[in-house]
Design brief:
Length: 160
């Protein structure tokens, strides 16, 4: 591997490292969402056939990753990305049959109670989930025993 490969495909992220960095940059809306999700997924029990809400899914990289790597059925919900744009990403990535794009505002989600086995939010929760009553609102979309995972980037040291 080259020095550039070491930077964009570190050993710490074996699943994410299989993805084309150029593809990821094309879908980029912040820090590497696949690294954040791969770290988060180590603490979740995601299994094929589960229904997962990817809340604040952006342009769809995390939804593609969830469908490919864990075999889950994903509802990709985002307010800023048009559903048809996200759906095109999913179709091109070969997961259009397992990922459904929904344009939805996080405080008015169009889902029934207990609709999901898991809800994940990668680099998005900090934009909509900080009100005291938001977690109870979000939790009612989880099935009994459901899992909630949130990953938000943070600094490991002071930057000056």
């Amino acid at each position: 591997m080259t020095a550039l490969d070491d930077l964009v495909r570190p050993d710490r992220y074996p699943r994410s490292s299989r993805y084309d960095p150029a593809w990821l940059v094309g879908l980029d809306m912040g820090p590497n969402p696949l690294w954040l999700l791969e770290d988060l997924a180590r603490d979740l029990d995601l299994r094929p056939g589960m229904r997962v809400l990817d809340l604040g899914s952006g342009k769809g990289a995390t939804s593609v990753f969830l469908a490919r790597e864990f075999g889950v059925d994903v509802v990709a919900a985002d307010w800023w990305i048009a559903a048809q744009d996200a759906a095109a990403v999913f179709a091109e990535a070969g997961v259009g049959d397992r990922v459904t794009a929904v344009r939805a505002e996080a405080h008015a989600l169009p889902f029934e109670a207990e609709s999901f086995d898991a809800i994940v939010s990668v680099d998005a929760f900090e934009y909509f989930g900080t009100a005291d009553g938001y977690l109870p609102y979000l939790a009612h979309f989880l099935r009994p025993g459901g899992q909630l995972g949130v990953a938000t980037p943070g600094m490991t040291r002071e930057v000056r």
